[in-house]
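Recall the central idea of this unit: under ordinary conditions, the amino acid sequence of a chain determines the structure it adopts. In this exercise we apply that idea directly, starting from the sequence alone.
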Amino acid sequence: MNTESFMTHRVYNFSAGPATLPLPVLEQVQQELLDFNGLGASVIEISHRSKPFLNLMEEAEALFRELTGLPQTHRMLYMHGGAQMQFSCVPLNLIGLHPKRQAAYAITGKWGELAEKEARKYGRT
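Accordingly, the structure predicted from this sequence is:
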């Protein structure tokens, strides 16, 4: 692909969710998709228990903690899924803490409606 031509046709996504990444980042990902750190395989082809992958996860955690100030007293959990998955995770973990298994939701729009509807599976809202 001609990078110069590609750059003139780049689209910038300012909506929620996925966003535009800098071209150098995409180019690095493109290269590493074929050969991650000289392993002859991509990061999605190596074992999640291998030393190179564990090093990658440790580096990602260290960078996240540095950027956000997240203390060592907090653990990080890597999960697939998007924002809507949190509509299950939050009530699943918190509604049970309330003696009456209930939660209050401030519904201000579509996302609030979706969150409250999902929470009903775990208790009263």
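The helical segments are 3-8, 23-34, 51-68, 86-94, 110-119.
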